[in-house]
Amino acid sequence: MEIRGSVPPDAAPARPFPYEGVWRFTAPAIDASVPQARHAVRDLLRRQGVPIHDDLVQGLLLIVSELVTNAVKHAALLSPQVAVEVAIGAEWIRVSVEDNHPYRPKALETDYGQTGGRGLLLVREITCEAGGACDVEQTVSGGKIIWVALPLAPVSGAVTSPRQAL
Prior knowledge:
This protein is of the alpha+beta class and 166 residues long. 30% of the residues lie in helices and 23% in strands. It has helices at residues 33-48, 54-75, 119-130; strands at residues 21-28, 81-88, 92-99, 133-138, 144-151. A 5-stranded antiparallel sheet has the order 1-2-3-5-4, with helices on one face. Helix 1 runs antiparallel to helix 2 (54-75) and helix 2 (54-75) runs antiparallel to helix 3 (119-130). The radius of gyration is 18 Å and the shape is globular.
């Protein structure tokens, strides 16, 4: 008997790696949520046994800190909660931060004398160096999701992705 679209009997079915999945948590849009989000992502990576190089972990955690900080500082008035989602696949990890504020952020070049304002530039540079992609999407409710996807395997040399929208 032939079943179309099935896996041949001698082939092993493709199964997800044990670390694959999607996790989402929410936090109040307050300063204390920044380190909590960073620690939650770090602990998730460890708990799931994600095969990720330490340098990439550090970059990813910095990205989480920057994105949650932006949501806390710029969106809290219209978004008392922020959501952080981590999606881990066989080859990529995607982190997104969602809030209900409609403002679409832009990476700004600022004076080096200022102590802030370069977070999205930093996110874009880390993403580009890792060979990843980042973008901002509007939600159906009028808010936004800022996401970054990075390859789990190290990328040699800087790679510019076509989706570097930040």
